[in-house]
Design a protein that fits this description.
Bound molecules: 2-acetamido-2-deoxy-beta-D-glucopyranose
Strand content: 25-35%
Signal peptide: 1-18
Largest sheet: 17 strands, antiparallel
Number of strands: 38
Domain Beta-hexosaminidase bacterial type N-terminal: 70-149
Keywords: Glycosidase, Hydrolase, Signal
CATH superfamily of the largest domain: Glycosidases
Helix content: 10-25%
EC number: 3.2.1.52
Protein name: beta-N-acetylhexosaminidase
CATH architecture of the largest domain: Alpha-Beta Barrel
Radius of gyration: 27 Å
């Protein structure tokens, strides 16, 4: 059945009516029957045999999945709806199937400027089967997101009819500052899964940066020692020393970066890598100090080795990148050196273009010159009106990507920016009235905004920065900054018409089924009691979980009697089938640490955190996440029992012990070398193992609740 045929059929039926289906984003649909299609009828996914190996060559990625590959990911995602169905190849839809195909009708898939987009799709729901037909496999993939969302919201029932859909803008997503904070590859991949469920297609990863180089108070030595990182680790001699060996564990090898890019591409999300220079380039100057200006975070572009050094870096890493566009940074440079800046940008543009065929993107930066201009084929990523006027740039024929700081986030604390997306601004941010959209650069002054259909607006990227470095936040706090607002923004980036009230109604339901991620670090549980070890019996090393969830543990070199787990040697441990629990939680237990347990022994540990008796030099109880210790002014008594509860409540973490008032774990943020800020820190509960890293002593009554 062809989509065109459906429309004729629709017009003849009295029940036909157009409806905006509520989803994230919304979806316009012509309902043609009062009957419904139940997804429980689905027995298989069928991939059109003509297109099973087709890929989208017009998208942002150079590694586009085939239609068949997208179908397999879709099949695994349907498990979220309780459906387990195989993927097969066929020439047409059959009863009980979801048929995935490619449409040739370009008229249906136009962006806000009226241009063809390969991301459009048509969803046709019949009485016996569903057909998703995309302008490309990526379009079909977005259609599968609509199906999953509508299936969930409709209790597995879909209305019968058909609808066509296409994004208004081609670049939709976020940027994360991975330069001033390391993020494990799995986390980046989970963020891609989050984006993808709401049809966002771009994850811009900022791969190098440094803490603010406060030249007013730092000596040259201190600047050369300031936190600065470059996250791509190549063994090519051209970049030997750029990543210091002590940071190999906080950088991505080519294999790892390939895995991030292909895992994200598998869900329709393209990684746009950014290597930042000539500003925010302290890591390059720490590597080659002679290339710095007086402010060592800025490269001296007129030094004869600077541009060759940047070319060597790009020559090394261009083959790693599977996107058609790369980002060269070019943010916040000295405006008195405008000609140097423009020379730098244009030189790298032609170098990268001629050596790889890739386009480049730069941050909009105020660099006034009377003699030169940035090439028109470079996309300007606008972020602030004091740097550029985006509408003026568009009038000068630049393509502009909207990253206005109206949606900036700075992790944990900032004098200027919030820590969460402003949801009111998303739904009401058009100064001419109504919701924000990617053509809204200025939420206060409509004169600064081009019309919605202006082809110069490339799309929108919401940026999150880590101005206060690696110890201000734990990894998942970056997710929590976006968690509640980003899907709303995704609706607007696509061109949806969701209202705030509708969003608030469906958010939790859709959030609960986002495939490919568990960023909440949630644990499936029958009741609020997730885990309970009474330590009454152990049979052959198995410690029974009495919560009813069956999370039995395994005891190694330990023993259990009378409700006590005895860990008598430094490698005695209890391992659980769990790893971490995110907010909210209460992890309580009684503990009797032996005076033989060394300072620094860990009581509990997991992939994201550990709770330790001390930090190696001081016997203060501490939580550790990514090797950063968050220390309490409290020491557990030795050779005595104490009741302890570790509590994750919202964005803060607490400890209750020995009947005292709750104590809070705090992050100590260094603010530009001239002050400190004490802020809450939200650390996941460590659950993988009890003991095992030196701890000697007893534990009893261990219980994990999903509330705090
Ligand atoms: C879309 O692409 C088709 C060819 O695939 C072309 O015929 C049509 O004119 C294009 N439409 C627009 C608006 O670019
Ligand atoms: C930049 O490099 C040029 C060429 O080597 C040199 O003359 C100039 O002094 C350098 N600028 C600074 C601020 O070091
Ligand atoms: C952009 O245009 C300039 C000329 O203005 C050219 O040198 C450069 O190669 C072009 N870059 C790309 C990526 O096409
Ligand atoms: C550009 O020209 C204006 C007016 O002649 C002058 O004031 C300004 O200093 C010049 N800027 C640069 C960067 O040369
Ligand atoms: C933490 O939560 C509190 C209360 O909900 C809120 O006021 C504060 O802004 C949050 N802080 C961050 C960094 O998210
Ligand atoms: C959120 O955005 C709205 C609209 O732009 C603005 O009025 C409000 O002050 C913002 N709220 C915060 C907390 O910044
Ligand atoms: C609005 O923007 C226009 C164009 O940039 C500017 O001329 C005008 O002064 C602005 N209005 C206000 C109230 O800021
Ligand atoms: C342990 O904590 C103390 C107090 O916070 C601190 O002074 C010391 O440097 C820390 N030692 C280690 C090894 O982290
Ligand atoms: C990597 O190793 C360094 C040095 O041992 C340590 O400071 C850092 O916290 C480690 N990072 C991670 C993510 O484990
Ligand atoms: C730690 O607590 C003790 C009392 O228990 C108090 O005397 C001391 O000043 C506290 N230290 C800090 C750094 O708060
Ligand atoms: C966690 O606790 C905070 C503070 O009590 C509350 O605002 C929040 O809604 C809770 N979150 C969940 C997921 O229950
Ligand atoms: C966190 O890092 C800053 C540097 O940005 C440093 O000044 C501060 O002491 C660190 N905090 C802790 C607890 O190590």
């Amino acid at each position: 059945m062809r989509p065109g045929g459906v429309f004729i059929f629709t017009a003849l039926l009295a029940v036909a009516y157009a409806k905006t289906l509520i989803g994230i984003p919304t979806f316009d649909f012509d309902v043609t029957s009062t009957a419904q299609f139940s997804l429980s009828q689905v027995t298989r996914i069928l991939v059109d045999s003509r297109f099973q190996s087709t890929v989208d060559l017009n998208g942002k990625t150079l590694i586009p999945p085939t239609l068949f590959a997208f179908a397999e990911t879709f099949a695994s995602d349907l498990v979220e709806l309780g459906l387990q169905v195989p993927v097969q190849v066929a020439s047409s839809a059959q009863p009980g199937s979801i048929f995935l195909t490619i449409s040739s009708d370009d008229r249906l898939y136009l962006d806000a400027a009226g241009r063809n987009t390969s991301e459009g799709y048509t969803l046709t729901v019949g009485t016996e089967s569903v057909i998703i037909s995309g302008a490309s496999p990526l379009g079909t993939w977005w259609g599968t997101r609509t199906l999953i969302q509508q299936g969930k919201l409709g209790g597995l029932k879909l209305p019968i009819g058909s609808g066509s859909d296409a994004p208004g803008w081609g670049t939709r997503g976020v940027m994360l500052d991975a330069g001033r904070h390391y993020y494990p590859p799995e986390f980046l991949i989970e963020i891609c899964a989050y984006l993808s469920f709401f049809k966002q297609n771009t994850f811009h990863v900022h791969l190098s940066d440094n803490l603010f180089n406060n030249v007013d108070i730092y000596s040259r030595e201190r600047s050369l020692d300031l936190y600065a990182a470059f996250r791509l680790n190549s063994d090519d001699s051209a970049v030997a020393g750029l990543v210091r060996p002590y940071r190999f564990n906080e950088s991505y090898t080519r294999e790892t970066f390939d895995d991030i890019q292909s895992s994200c591409a598998a869900r329709g999300v393209t990684i746009i890598p950014e290597i930042e220079a000539p500003g925010h380039a302290l890591v390059i100057v720490q590597w080659k100090p002679k290339l710095g200006l007086a402010d060592l975070s800025l490269l001296n572009i007129s030094h004869p080795e600077t541009i060759p050094t940047m070319k060597a870096i790009w020559t090394t890493f261009l083959p790693w990148f599977h996107s058609k566009t790369v980002h060269i940074g070019a943010d916040e440079y000295d405006s008195l050196l405008a000609n140097d800046y423009i020379l730098f940008v244009n030189t790298l543009s032609s170098f990268i273009g001629s050596s790889s065929g890739k386009d480049i993107r730069i941050w909009g930066t105020n660099e006034p010159s009377n003699t030169s201009t940035v090439s028109r084929n470079i996309t300007i990523q606008h972020w602030e009106f004091f740097e550029d006027n985006p509408f003026d740039l568009i009038k000068q024929n630049y393509s502009v990507l909207n990253s206005d700081d109206g949606f900036y986030i700075v992790g944990k604390f900032s004098g200027s920016y919030p820590q969460q997306l402003n949801v009111t601004r998303i739904f009401e941010g058009n100064p001419a009235g109504g919701a924000w959209a990617p053509n809204i650069f200025d939420t206060n002054n409509a004169t600064n905004n081009p019309p919605r259909d202006d082809p110069g607006v490339v799309g929108h990227i919401a940026a999150q920065w880590n101005d206060y470095g690696p110890n201000a936040t734990v990894v998942t706090e970056a997710y929590y900054s976006w968690r509640d607002g980003l899907p709303a923004l995704a609706d607007k980036q696509w061109g949806g018409v969701l209202t705030r009230a509708q969003y608030d109604t469906i958010f939790d339901t859709l959030h609960s089924i986002i495939p490919g991620q568990n960023l909440d670090r949630a644990i499936v549980s029958k009741t609020d009691v997730i885990l309970r070890y009474d330590f009454t019996t152990a049979s052959r090393g198995t410690i029974v979980d009495s919560s009813g969830n069956g999370y039995d543990g395994t005891c190694v070199a330990c023993s259990v009697s009378n409700g006590v787990l005895s860990l008598s040697s430094p490698n005695s441990r209890l391992t659980t089938p769990l790893s971490s629990k995110g907010r909210n939680y209460t992890l309580s237990f009684s503990i009797n640490p032996s005076s033989h347990a060394p300072i620094g022994a860990s009581i509990l540990s997991g992939p994201e955190s550990s709770l330790v008796l001390g930090n190696g030099t001081v016997q203060n109880l501490a939580l550790i996440s990514a090797n950063q210790a968050y220390v309490l002014n409290y020491t557990l008594p030795r050779d005595a029992w104490t009741d302890v509860a570790l509590i994750g409540r919202g964005n803060a973490t607490f400890l209750r012990a020995g009947g005292r008032p709750e104590m809070q774990f705090l992050a100590v943020l260094g603010i530009n070398g001239d002050s400190f800020e004490w802020q809450p820190i939200a650390v996941e509960a460590p659950l993988a193992q009890i003991g095992g890293n030196g701890f000697v002593g007893g534990i009893s009554n261990l219980q994990l609740l999903g509330s705090a």
